[in-house]
Each structure stands twice: as C-alpha cells, then as structure tokens.
Amino acid sequence: MCGIVGYIGPGDAKSIVISGLKRLEYRGYDSSGIAFIDDDSIIIKKKSGKVSSLDSVVKKDKIEGLCIGHTRWATHGLPNDLNAHPHFSMNKNLAVIHNGVIENYLTIKEGLVNRGYKFVSETDTEVLINLIQDVQTNEKTGLFKSIQLALSQVVGAYSIAVIDKKNSEKIVVAKKGSPLIIGVGNNENFIASDPAPFLNYTKNVIYLKDNEIAEVSASEIKIKNIKNKSKRPYIEKLNIELEAIEKGNYETFMLKEIYEQPKAIVETLRGRISSDFKRTRLRGLNENIDFLKNVKKIIIIACGTSWHAGLVGEYLIEGIARIPVEVEYASEFLYRDPLISTNDMVIAISQSGETADTLSALKLAKQRGAFVYGICNVVGSSIARSAGVGTYTHAGPEIGVASTKSFTSQVTVLILIALYLNTLKERNSSIKITELTKELVQISDKMSRTIDDINDKIIKISELYKDAKNFLYLGRGISFPVALEGALKLKEISYIHAEGYPAAEMKHGPIALIDKNMPTVIIATNKSNYEKVLINAEEIKARSGKLIAIVNKNDKQMSKIADHVIEIAETNNFLSPLITTLPLQLLSYHIAKMRGCNVDQPRNLAKSVTVE
C-alpha cells in the first residue's frame, strides 16, 4: 500500500523523488522519507505526516545521482518518525524502502537478536534490511546476491529498493506480490510503485515480475530471478498522459473523478458493442466459447467498492443471463476452503489490480481448476497478469482514495458480460437485448445531465445533515448494493457512521435506530418494487425520521412523503446503478468537504491495498 520512488542518473534526484512521492501519496500518507549517498555515507531524512512535511526537512539538501523515497501506510508500528522509511541496517552500510508485509519477521528478528542485532523501530522492514546485512557479512557476497539469499528466507509480500554506501552507482530492487515498475530513460532510470512519478520523463517501462530482482544503474538494467536465472528485460510503452493524473481545474481528485464518470463509461464501452447492438465483444470470452456455453456457476471475488460492484453483477448476470452467481469477499474466500469446480467461472475485480486478498483468492481459484477472469483498471497489474484473460475498464487513473469512476466502470463491464452470456446461452428471451444495449450506449449522456442537474441541490441537503452522527441507506433489488456503496462512501471520507440495508430488512432491526436525528437515504427508482419502497418511506416518516429519496424525474408520490427528493434521469433497471450511485457520491463528497475532511486522502486508508 506504500509508495516507492527511486531515481538514478545525472538529473536533480531530490526534486524527481519528492515530486514523485507527492504523486504517489494516495498510496499512503502516514509518513515519508528519502535516502541518498553523500561522501560515502547513506543519509536518511524522514518525517511523519504528509510529503509536504518531508519537503521542508530536505529543502536545503542538494541530491544528485541517486535517491530513493517512500510514502508509508503503516502496518507494523505507529506512523511516526522512527517507523518511517527508509530504514538503515545496523551497520548503516545499507538502506531499504519496502511495500508489503514480511509475515515471518518475528522469527527472523529473534534469530538476528540472538546474533547481536539491535533494532530502533517496530517495523518488519528493519528486520529485512538487517537480514540482508547478516547474509552479506557472513556469506561475503555483494548486495545483489545478499538480497537473493535473504529473500529466499522470507515469507510474505514485498517490493523493495536497497542502496549500499559502497556503491553509489546502483539501486537493487525486488518484487513479490507487490507492484514495482522500472521507468527506462535516456542514461537515467526510475523505479516506482506505479508510473505516475516518472510519466513526464519516460513512458518506457519494465514491469518487474514476482521473484525477480533487478540491478538498476543509470545506463543498464540487469534482471535475475531469486534462483539466479537471468531474465531479458521486456520494455513496454505506456499509453497514458500526464494530464490524466493531475487535478486540472477541479478542487479535488475525487470531484474530478465523479465528473469523469460519463467519459469513463464511453471508454469502457469503446469497441465492445457491435454496430447493430446485438453482440458484445470482450477479450477472453470469445476465445472460451465452449467452456462458457456449459458454465454452471459464476463466483465473483472482490473487496470494498469492487465487492459492491460484484453484488450488482450478481443481479445483472442472474437477471439477464440466468446463470447462478455467488459473490465472495476475497479476504474470506481464501480461508474457508471454498467449493470450486472446473465448470466454474471466477471473476476477480480490483481497481488497482494489486489488491492482495483478491490476488491470493484468484490464485486459489486457478489452483482448483476454475476459469479465472480479471476485471481491473491498471494495465500490467498483478491481477491482470495472473488471471491471463480479462477486461480492462479503461476508466483512466483514479487518484482519489474513495473509488467512484472505478465502481461505475466495473459495473459497466459486468453488464457487458451479462449481455454476452445471454446471447451465448440464448437465455431470458423476455429481455429485449438490443434495446438494453442501445440504452447502455446512451447512458453516459444521462449521467452527465444528472450530475449537472443535482449537484446544487445536494450541496443544500449536505449543509443540513453534515453534523449527523449516523446515516441509513436503503435499496431494494439491484439498488441494495448501491445503498451499500453509498454508505461506504460516507464512512470513508466524512467519518460518519453509515449502514446500507435491503429496504425490506429495515423492520427486522435497523428501524429501532430511526428518530428525528437519523437521516435515511432511500433509492426509489425501480418501478417493479416502487410501491414497496413507498411503504418503507412511510415507516420511516411515522418514526419522525429524516428522509432523502433518490427518484426518477417527475416522480409525484415520493415527494409527498420524503423531506428531500433528488430527481435523476430514468433508465432501464439493470442499468440504474450507473445513475443512482451519482447522487450518493456527491452527497458524501459535499458532506465531507463541509466537515473539513480531506476527501482525497481520508484517514487510515490507502488506494491500493497490497497487504492481506
């Protein structure tokens, strides 16, 4: 979850690394630090808090040639100066930055303590660098070989960058289960957790694979695996512009990404629907037609917002294609010995493509013989590579920690999968596929109009409820996962406790919470269960609850009951999550802003959860 940046070359290493850390701050912002070599000594500067705090500490330092930097999301030890990265080895000959978790660090630490090593931090990372020092001292090996031997003793996930004061011409990096990319420049090279730090210098990249170690100098990159087999570096060209990771005229990344959703849907759909609206095309599905014709069950694995998208997918695939679907938390799936057969399709969903729980669950599904399909946003990510087949959402970079456009883009891909399976299996002829597909192609316009129409009203509603202590979100059918997602957004960025519930379940418990101080958001756009939702609304008002209703345009009945109605563009029920989620995102956003919260970097969270 932490961010790693490194540079080696003739340029201004300090400004490159510091600006790179600021671009990676969405990956963790508990503390940050840099390490560089000066007069044959390693110098470490680090500070708790945001990268801006570190910036002031290193302001007077002139750093050229080599520098590594880190922005932290704490796992082991408090987020303070002492536990911040980089970390020294005990003899101060080596320094390391690390993303991931060393699971057996306590066992390794015990052995090192018995051999006389002393530790100054609470981190697993300091244990790792001292293990490397121990190997280097006892085996009398160079840095590269020492790292190879040390990592063979390690259990866990990591991406690391190590420097040695005896060699200021090289950075050694290694990866397992946590992302690390090498940016290839002209007589200069970069390392980072994702390409953002070096996009304005190079778009040529090498995606380091699991169990690979690279020795990076300004002019050369040598790669070997942990067993010392040489690997030829494979350089790829990035298709991304610097503007995509900047805020532009928007106050925050989150607001920019909310407004980018209509465009993101267009990009997700591009080239995937036939001109006659009768067929969908998705990579990996056409190549596996025989399997998909006979698939018995689909299992969707994901975490957080992606899990909510998966729940929407359950309604979509079962409703459109009539195939049974199970939706599992990836973090639980891995540890409960799930029933998986070779006739099952497992869909793994992750915005970053690096979510550790989802990646581990995906690997288990592959081991059990299931057909595994990945949905993610980041090209070249671990899930994309591990799944083998799948679909990129093409939503563009999402920097705000709270996911917005990734949710609607994931839902869009799941709609395409449901449509594809319907056509392939000739299921559910009652659904007019051509009409549904045409509406999907036009949905971006309705999304744009909805955002423009409702924003001012939501600002006024937010002002009324910004000090609420609790919120309840209710939805029926396919709107239930949207209610869950709305509650999650409010929790993530405003720190208000919120719960999402199926509307019919309210009377089985949550209704006890409703009073004049308890706002409830209810989604009432589905005509097939509209009358039932009206009854739920009446039950809330009978207990003096404050009610915010999301309704279709020109709704007449709910406005007589609810305290506030937010009208949105009407669409097919299967497509409704693409629109009903918009007011919930904006409500969370404006409430959080009015409470003085940092919406892009909410406390205790990070964008890419690369630890289990």
In words, what does this structure look like?
The chain has 612 residues and is of the alpha/beta class. It has 3 domains: 3-244, Glutamine Phosphoribosylpyrophosphate, subunit 1, domain 1; 252-431, Rossmann fold (3-Layer(aba) Sandwich); 449-598, 3-Layer(aba) Sandwich (Rossmann fold), CATH 3.40.50. Helices cover 35% and strands 24% of the residues. The chain is built from 17 helices and 25 strands. An 8-stranded antiparallel beta sheet has the order 3-2-4-1-10-9-11-15. It has a 7-stranded antiparallel beta sheet with strand order 5-6-7-8-12-13-14. Helix 4 (124-139) packs across helix 5, helix 7 (261-269) packs parallel to helix 13 and helix 9 runs parallel beside helix 13. It is globular. The termini are close together.
